[in-house]
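Researcher: Re-running this chain for the archive, since the previous output was lost when a drive failed. Same request as before.
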Amino acid sequence: MKYMVGETSNGTAVFAVIGENAVNITALDPEIGSDLAVLASQGGRVESLSDQLGTAPTVPVDSITPALPIADPGAIICVGLNYTDHIKEGGYDIPDYPALFMRSKASIMAAGKPLVRPTCSEKLDYEAELMLIVGKGGRHISEADALDHVFGYTVFNDGSVRDYQRKTHQWTPGKNFDDTGAIGPFVVTPDEVPEGAAGLKIESRVGDEILQSSNTANMIWGVRKIISIVSEYTTLAPGDLIALGTPPGVGHAKKPNPRWLVPGETVEIEIEGIGICASPIVDEKDHASEAAE
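Model: Regenerated structure tokens:
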């Protein structure tokens, strides 16, 4: 199944995406709620609606304004170094254990919303990433069982303010500016992609300019391994988000000059079989002025 959470004139709802159209499944079953949290924790509910999906009213996908797939995630866990060539372009040694960091809820936003370049820096970078949504929670999850804990996969742009990322040994400031982490708009269930979402083309671009182009098969630690590693130290819960790292080609490593995102551009992150996460770049002062109007 392919899902989208979004807004129409009737409010925010969960939609089942069928080609270029979508069915409002929240309208068919209000207990589903207005995001994917219920489905993530109680997988299988949609099967009871399968007979209705073929006859229910539809709306064009492009008429829906994307919202966050999970409105209030409990944890947003990110893998910092998970593609060998990206590690090398950043000047790091290949680690034996993944670099993990957390994002705040204020730092994420839905696909299509502005990605904000902060007033204090012009070094706003892009990072194309696969993100998983936890379904069944748990602790000490084995690699063998890890895929049973995945509700679905989506697209993530881990927008990074590089000079603030490098101010300390911890990456927290550069990875947590408000409205820098775009998610969505589509979520696909595991049956829609190869096992562990491996073997999918992953790309970032601005217009015709290809910034990153790789494949999720190139991840050092795949979905099974990351779930197992993360669940060693924390209890995963339904609706938690895990971002799985970015391939090479990020802006700060471009030669001879870094390639930063600038207001007026739109950056797109695309993952084969999942979709495109597009974000217009705006300056913080302009974004604040628009929000105040």
